[in-house]
Design brief:
Layout: H1 2-19, H2 27-45, H3 52-82
């Protein structure tokens, strides 16, 4: 499952990350990347799988990633107040 999620996200953002590290991106591109990633993760969370167990595990793992990106989004928003 991690491989599917990683592959899907990697394909979407290859152009952004092939030239710059996240820390080197302009602020607006960081925000855009985080928003797009959250949107995709929320779509992926609703994917139908073959068994209830698979769906439970899938949702737990996607939720973990959603949580990470929501925290990153909050950190970016907070950095506006600091500057």
């Amino acid at each position: 499952m991690r491989t599917i999620l990683t592959a899907m996200m990697h394909t979407e953002f290859t152009n952004v990350f092939s030239t710059k590290k996240f820390s080197e991106l302009p602020f607006d591109e960081k925000e855009q990347l985080v928003e797009e990633t959250l949107r995709q993760l929320k779509e992926l969370r609703e994917m139908t799988l073959g068994t209830k167990t698979a769906e439970t595990i899938w949702k737990e793992r996607v939720d973990y990633n959603i949580s990470f990106y929501e925290k990153l989004k909050a950190q970016l928003e907070n950095s506006l107040n600091v500057c």
